[in-house]
Design brief:
3-stranded antiparallel β-sheet, Rossmann fold, alpha/beta, 266 residues
Length: 266
């Protein structure tokens, strides 16, 4: 018993101070908010678009567009681009209320996820119960969602908890591309959640189908079956990205807390 108490005193307070304090330094290999500099690419060569495994990069009106909802943050486009027109910053704030807000273009500002309206914030802002549904996921996004329950993040201190039954939930947190075998199960789970309810899509698979996009066995994400209120991109998204999106949805964060970026073209 005394050994346990001594070890606890030695470890000290382990829960991160976020959001009052910024997250701890992220590793150098972390890939956050994509940035595009078309001035480096006056004559688009199409190399980055050809290299992208999910079609996240497109060329419209001679301007590059990168869809974070499809992006796997795999760096294939970085390696393919001969002029460094695409880069990834260390900004973990990626969530959006709309699919359109996930599309990055040359020099545009990130549209941080907007909060719920006042009525829904009054209902869910202090207590949000979520039923997590893995709709065919590989367990990467599921693992990073589970990390939020550890002592470092302590998700419950924000009033957000995961529950076992949709009958006890205020909404769903969905991962995976929604396989055909999970489509009906997802729909029934959504129907079982009492209204009003929220739906949060976590990861490229749940947003667009990810690497499985347009395969006949999947339905290209959650919003093909149920309405989605928050999109959190990544493959998988960092736990900081997920937490940031959830807190912004509930109106617990302002517009510019703890943004972290690094110059394009490392």
């Amino acid at each position: 018993m005394f050994n346990v108490l001594r070890e606890r005193l030695q470890q000290g307070y382990r829960t991160a101070g976020y959001p009052d304090q910024p997250p701890p330094p992220l590793p150098e290999r972390f890939r956050g908010l994509p940035m595009i500099d078309s001035s480096r690419c006056p004559a688009p060569c199409d190399e980055c678009r050809s290299a992208c495994p999910t079609g996240a990069i497109d060329l419209k009106s001679d301007q590059l567009h990168l869809d974070m909802g499809r992006c796997l943050f795999c760096s294939d486009c970085l390696e393919a681009c001969p002029v460094g027109a695409i880069g990834f910053t260390s900004d973990y704030r990626l969530a959006s209320r709309t699919c359109e807000g996930l599309v990055r273009t040359d020099g545009d500002l990130q549209q941080l996820a907007a909060a719920l309206d006042d009525k829904l914030k009054s209902l869910f802002g202090r207590s949000l119960k979520l039923r997590q549904v893995s709709a065919g996921g590989c367990n990467a996004c599921e693992a990073d969602v589970n990390v939020l329950n550890t002592v470092v993040f302590d998700l419950s201190r924000f009033g957000i908890q995961f529950v076992a039954s949709p009958r006890h939930a205020d909404g769903l947190l969905i991962t995976g591309p929604v396989t055909e075998h999970m489509r009906i199960a997802l729909q029934k789970t959504y129907d079982a959640v009492p209204a009003p309810k929220l739906v949060i899509a976590v990861g490229a698979c749940a947003i667009s189908g990810g690497p499985f996009i347009d395969l006949p066995e999947v339905h290209n994400g959650a919003d093909s079956v149920v309405p989605v209120d928050l999109y959190i991109p990544g493959c998988p998204p960092s736990p900081w990205t997920i937490l940031d999106g959830l807190l912004r949805l509930l109106g617990r964060l302002g517009d510019n807390e703890h943004g972290a970026t690094s110059p394009l073209g490392r």
